[in-house]
Amino acid sequence: MRKTPTLDQHLNVSDKNITSVSREKRVFKPTAEFQRQANLGSMAAYKKLHAESVNAPETFWKRMATEHIVWRKPFKKVLQWKAPQAKWFVGGALNVSENCLDRHLGTARENKAAIIFEGEPGDVRTITYKQLHLHVCRLAHVFENLGVGKGDRVAIYLPMIPEAMIAMLACARVGAIHTVIFGGFSPEAVKDRINDCQAKLVITADGGWRRGKIIELKSAVDKALPACPSVQACLVVKRTAHEIKMTEGRDIWWHDAWKGGPNFHKAKAFDSEHPLFILYTSGSTGKPKGVLHSSAGYLLGAKLSSHYIFDLKETDRYFCSADIGWITGHSYVVYGLLSNGSTVFLYEGAPNQPEPDRFWEMIDRHSLTILYTAPTAIRAFMRWGDNYVLKHRLDSLRLLGSVGEPISAEAWQWYHKMIGKGRCPIVDTWWQTETGSIMIAPIPGVTPCKPGSATLPFFGVSIKVVDESGKEVPRGTGGKLVITKPWPSMLRTLWNDAPRFKQAYFSEFPKHPDWYFTGDGAQQDKDGYFWIVGRIDDVLNISGHRIGTAEVESALGSHPAVAEAAAVGKPDELKGQALVVFVSLKNGIQATDELKEQLRAYVGKEIGSFAKPDQIRIAAALPKTRSGKIMRRILKQIAVGGEVKGDTSTLEDFSVIAALQSED
Ligand code: WTA
Question: pTM for the full model?
């Protein structure tokens, strides 16, 4: 496993980034109108609650867990912490699906829309809480008939359709552990994930709509499953209704599966720490990490943060554009929103189908009130032009959110002015797959915003910026972002890999084995606001997708023409970071444009097309230290076209640098 680069090494290449985020000096205060109706009314209230949440976390979390969660059995102890193992709400029992559904039945929310779905072709479906409960109960029975129950793993590989949410909730209902696989992953990646967690059941669809075309999900599953011996059955949702192959004895149509069984499913209670889901994410080795979240703490984190950070009101119609295959889709499409009884707007397709104003058109037509999206999408909207936005009123919107990567001051201003019409607060939310819920964000109506800063920590979050030795750095200085106390929605482990869990998150500061290292660089300004610089490990953030450089390298390493590959990121206006891969070829293989194209396609096949390198650069050899370590710092500098700085005396072959720079 690669060691995290030193701060100096990292800051060398990204200091441009740091100065650009620090340049914006304007502060945007909440409007009096928003403040009057906000769920948390004042800065004094935020400070008081935050102080209690970090100084007396057990008192704070005991109260929150009691208020916000429907318990079947009350917990006995708030926290048991022996780093890196946390147990929250020890002794308690609950059912997560009951917390998202049954709790609303028999209340005014029963006939409220839980989901408003719009497919890319324009089909619309509204599902009330009562109907959603019915769908989930029926599917829970199907699971039980298939022998899928407590602790079994279920892989979900679906488009953004209501069945994805129903499937997740049905898993929670029977205590099965879901692993949602983003629909953009290739059959190879699907196979690896299913095999890693030994899924018993796969849920997919014939296809999904994207940019007017069908995404062939079922045929991808058909390619993966022959190499997945753990899978006993595959449920298939009919979405596109085009011809697909059904394998007898394994594949079952979703609409045939329930067969008129009972409509009610009595949810069993599970321990607070019962695993809820595994979500694979990129780390700094070739193998994705199976981040494991458990039940009560995760649910509480998702629910509480949704309530305060999105300022949820009974009348909101909330739209999050993230795919359900990422953590944002888990916490802020499904669990956080449904547990609060909100109406979630779910959109299947691309933002520019049929025209680049699809979002704005849908926001007006459905009177949506909150939009949570990613800076990479905002940059695309900016590029498509203001005219697409100006055609629409957008007067139903009252709050905007951003997630996934640092938002530039320019994109922030555009979002604020063009989409929010200067009226809507923007919540820039910093968090990770591992944190489960938002860790740093403004409280709308309360926190004055500085474009480009995620502002201040959320309740219960003890977070700081430290140097290599773990000493807090002075304000205005860059450092490593660490969380110094456990929090309820933190990951519990990596599936099947406890040593890697400890190594990846709790080993950066030997003197502080109980600190969680985020992998991000950050600085705090004089007001204590956090400015995230970005990853300082070997993880890239491309269009908001996390991609490990080692994953791309190991994919390419299996190509017969490749001797060695090194992947690095370079700043990109649209995607945030672009993926550049340096490749040395095996003896006798000619570097041609055709081969470069083949290599790009190969990565697409091995991982998914979103991971295709933007650029492949072929070199005679890669620069290495005497011990044989590839010098990525140098490759990063070459990738951005900059001069090669710093000490290069450890290079094995000096001519390698010149050859790389002149190439391409
Ligand atoms: C980055 C996404 C700056 C960060 C929820 C983090 C951000 C990684 C922000 C996690 C933000 C996420 N400002 N950077 N508001 N939000 N990041 O696991 O580098 O897909 O470590 O979770 O995205 O990505 P992940």
Answer: 0.91
